[in-house]
Amino acid sequence: MLRILKPFSICKRASSTFKNIVKSPGPDIDIPKNVLLSEYLLENINKWTDKVAVECIETKKRYTFLEIRKKSLTLAHFLRNSLKLEEKSCVGILLPNLPEFPIVVLASIQAGLQITPINPNYTPDEIKKQLVLSKAKALFGVAERETELRSVCDNLKIPIIAVKVHQNTSLSTGTINFFDYVTAKQQNFDEIYTKSVTPDDVVLLPFSSGTTGLPKGVQLTHFNLVSNLMQTAVDEFDFYKKGGDEVSLAFLPFFHIYGFMLILIHGLCDGLKLITFPKFTSQLFLTGLREYRPTFIPAVPPIVHMVNTSTHINHSEDLVSVRSMLCGAAPLGKTDIVHFRDLTNGKIDIIQGHGMTETSPLNMVQTRAFEGGLKIGGCGFLVPNTQAKFVSIENSEDQNGLGMKQNGELCIKGPQVMKGYLDNPTATKEMFMEDGWVRTGDIGYYDEDGHIFITDRLKELIKVQGFPVAPAELESLIRKHPSVEDVAVIGVKHEKLGEAPKAFVVLKKSVKLQPKDIEDFVAPKVIKYKHLAGGVTFLEHIPKTPAGKILRRDLKKLI
């Protein structure tokens, strides 16, 4: 029987000296401080043996949990003994959602390495930038992109390990064939490659813009990730059943912290069958619903909107197997929630939460286990061992939490909070407050039940279909145009994308350009979701504070 608990818990004087600290409605859990992510994963993977773990919706290639376990160990041996990668060095993973992705991840962390997931649609310039910043010593990529990847990796003098999506793809001399080292005769390797790795060492290095600025390497440790896995494994906070007949459509990208942790890693731990999508199309989504009968769908707002408006989906038949849908990466509007509930007769829970790359990622989630746990527009309750407070936006010096239903910036404290930004002490210092609290850049409040709501963004990030775009990155790029004097980028509402980047540009004197000239300058240099789909407007000057900070709210008034 499901326990319905009264959740609200607030501490006027918690473990810190600050007022109005919101806590999880559930009790704290014991999180071991001596367990590596590889150990935690293997302990769980070994429960499922011959059960199918991943299957590609296009090629139908599949691996069982046991096959992933064996092949990853063989690959780990190759990485350390043949490639001679040193313990704690970093490897880049530039792969779409393929069934081989979990093999690469598990092999790398068993080999005592760090991993940095890279968007497989990045341009060569973007790929090179992340490889350089992360100090990657090898790159996993698809064979079909070998030519452009070789130009990047040869320049950096690092090897490419190519995964063939289509077996007839040829590889040039010097490129390592992934399948040569996972289909080889299985061996029993006694060597343990994590002898000097500790739970406080970094294992995952995704890149995030934080609350502002250019992308930075987020240092997530073994302890951070194991903590968040355990925090969300508590029955009251779980969003699907573990180890039974659960099937999930894995179309959200594994390179993103949402897809990596809440889909891929959770799936490996909990015995889910993941149906991987190398790319997302509405037709493949429909195929996934009808052919695989998923029970759990992790989504983002544009997916929910697509389900609501699609004329091809029979909501009473195609969604009949679905028990729950998790929606994250950006807030889901009330209209979409109500419409979805009407279409499904309220039979499918649509669960929202709050997370960020810097917190591994989940901080809170909606749940039926607690009273007031599924409020429209809310993000739910804090997971165990987590505290939150909302601090004044006007008075940044006051670090006390605001009272109930008072809007402020959400700050989080817990074992899932990152170690810091890679080689960037200034950005790390700006992100952290006293006593280990991390700023989220989100504005919101808590209500009388302790349910947390996010109402606005203090941070400057633009969310395009759930993907974060840093204005500073596009501004830096546009300033390289020889005719540009100054520029500012903001997010504007977009019918299909939710939000899109828009540039306000000041041209140098006596220069005449069309908006399309700026759009065409940006497009080949960045991934598609960073294109200036919101348009370009020319101004005589960019509104700024006396200190030179861009007044983005003033720019929004010009739209």
Fill in the keyword field for this structure.
559 residues; alpha/beta; Rossmann fold; GMP Synthetase, Chain A, domain 3; 14 helices; 24% strand
Please give a quick description of this structure.
The protein has 559 residues and is an alpha/beta fold. The strands form 6 sheets. It has an 11-stranded mixed beta sheet, sandwiched between helices. A 5-stranded parallel beta sheet has the order 6-5-7-8-9, with helices on both faces. A 4-stranded mixed beta sheet has the order 4-3-14-13, with helices on both faces.
Distance between the termini: 53 Å
How many β-strand runs? 29
Can you tell me the CATH class of the domain at 36-198? Alpha Beta
Structural class: alpha/beta
* Shape estimate: globular
Q: Which range best describes the helical content: under 10%, 10-25%, 25-40%, 40-55%, 55-70% or over 70%?
A: 25-40%
CATH architecture name of the domain at 36-198 = 3-Layer(aba) Sandwich
Low-confidence stretches: none
How does this structure look, described?
This protein is α/β, with parallel strands linked by helices and 559 residues long. Among the domains are: 36-198, 3-Layer(aba) Sandwich (Rossmann fold); 462-556, ANL, C-terminal domain (GMP Synthetase, Chain A, domain 3, 2-Layer Sandwich). The chain is built from 14 helices and 29 strands. An eleven-stranded mixed sheet has the order 1-2-20-21-23-24-19-18-17-16-15, with helices on both faces. Helix 9 (301-309) crosses helix 10. The protein is globular, with a radius of gyration of 23 Å.
